[in-house]
Design brief:
Strand content: 25-35%
Catalytic activity: a 3'-end 2',3'-cyclophospho-ribonucleotide-RNA + H2O = a 3'-end 2'-phospho-ribonucleotide-RNA + H(+)
Structural class: alpha+beta
Protein name: RNA 2',3'-cyclic phosphodiesterase
Number of domains: 1
Pfam families: 2_5_RNA_ligase2
Strand order of the largest sheet: 3-1-7-8
CATH class: Alpha Beta
CATH superfamily: Cyclic phosphodiesterase
Shape: globular
Function: Hydrolyzes RNA 2',3'-cyclic phosphodiester to an RNA 2'-phosphomonoester.
Helix content: 10-25%
Number of helices: 4
Family: Belongs to the 2H phosphoesterase superfamily. ThpR family.
Radius of gyration: 16 Å
Number of strands: 8
């Protein structure tokens, strides 16, 4: 079973970002880029790949992540990796940036120093060079702040729709000052 851990943005955050990608109802993600379906937009904390004992992995992640401080984040800005258009994710302040990095470190699959939180919006063959008008549309984009209540351990299956399904949900602790 292929697994990864992620934060899933709330529906209104996804709708707002989707609207920013369609100014005037015309999509700004050009061919040959393939948009990632909005229902699949997430912030990956760690990719675990093919896991032979998913229950053991989930138990370890529950122990490492359960009750950790939830960061307050928003989707803001954009960039590209080879073959990928992404929207950035930033914390509301240094404590939130640290809390997000702590989640990545607790997952243990990424070097927090090299980790760039993002939401993948579109993919294309690495050889292609699409006109990235979406970068212009998203450079100054900043969505609303949100605080995830949980980390999802997600099953990924490219042969099924929806492609992703929650395998395990791990509750996060509240941010400081929350009731």
């Amino acid at each position: 079973m292929r697994l990864f851990t992620a934060l899933w943005p709330p529906d209104d955050v996804v709708r707002d970002l989707a609207a920013a990608l369609r100014p005037g109802e015309q999509a700004v993600v050009p061919a040959p880029a393939r948009p990632v379906p909005e229902r699949e937009w997430h912030v990956t904390l760690g990719f675990h790949g093919e896991v032979t004992d998913p229950a053991r992995l989930a138990a370890g992640l529950r122990a490492a992540l359960g009750g950790r401080r939830a960061p307050t984040v928003r989707i803001a800005g954009a960039g590209v990796f080879p073959g990928v258009l992404w929207a950035g994710v930033e914390g509301a302040g240094p404590e939130d940036e640290a809390a997000l990095s702590a989640l990545v470190a607790a997952v243990g699959e990424s070097d927090p120093g090299e980790y760039r939180p993002h939401v993948t919006l579109a993919r294309w063959p690495r050889r292609a060079t699409p006109d990235l008008a979406a970068l212009t549309a998203l450079t100054s984009y900043a969505g609303r702040w949100w605080t995830p209540e949980e980390v999802l351990v997600v099953r990924s299956d490219a042969r099924e729709r929806p492609r992703y399904s929650a395998y395990q949900r791990i509750a996060l602790g509240p941010p400081p000052g929350a009731p």
